[in-house]
Amino acid sequence: MQKQKFRNFKVWQRAMDLVEKIYRLTEHFPSSEKFGLTSQLRRSASSIALNIAEGSASSSPSEFGRFLEISLRSNYELVCGIEIAKRLGYCRCLEKDSLLAELDEIAAMLSGFKKKLKTDH
Fold first, then answer.
1. Pick from 34, 84, 115, 120: CA 20 to 30 A from residue 22's CA?
2. What pLDDT, on a 0 to 100 scale, did the predictor assign at position 119?
């Protein structure tokens, strides 16, 4: 059995890169957002990578698919959170556009991975 195979998944690697970007972005949010939007964005970003990792240890492809679905939902939650941050003036338009493009790519990767799990088994 291959241990920690999730480390080889491109989508997990991209999700980890995204976590770093979100942490860096939220470092500059107002301190009043520490337990609000900052925390929510960080948890959403982390959830994408964490659920890919956890799901990779699943006993069946359908169970893994459920974890990928949770990752996808966290991805969309993060999209909304970034939109909120932009509206509140916490991030620049360029940052927002770059992050949203990255989230679109990760969502496509997650959806493709989910479909591949279904067709492989």
1. 115
2. 84
